[in-house]
Amino acid sequence: MKSEHNPQPASYRLSWRDPESRANHTPLAELPLFDAHFNGADYVPALDDKRLTGQILRVFTLMRDGKWRTLDEIVEATGDPHASISAQLRHLRKARFGRHVVNRRPRGERCHGLYEYSLKVSK
What we know:
The protein has about 120 residues and is an alpha+beta fold. The chain has a single domain, classed as Arc Repressor Mutant, subunit A (Orthogonal Bundle). About 35% of the residues lie in helices and about 10% in strands. Strand 2 and strand 3 form a beta hairpin. Helix 2 packs across helix 4. It is globular and about 45 Å long.
């Protein structure tokens, strides 16, 4: 998908909606290397690799500060869909993506069902 304002396909960009996230992101060369081996019944590497790699890098870069955020807050900062963010948070727990600790807790009254997440980066 190309646009007039950005000639690169969306899957190539490490883009940010939130200006603070954009200003504080780490250059890709300084991020940990993931053995980004995605899989699944509908997974097609030629179609999905760049998009999924961009998603996991955006989520990791945002969340590695350890701050607690809801899915809506992560969506606002990264521009990625809720379901994709949930999937990438699950991936970050896996060995091939660093075996990081992704914590979850209710925000506010538990009966409302709103959760927030934080990432503890493994060494």
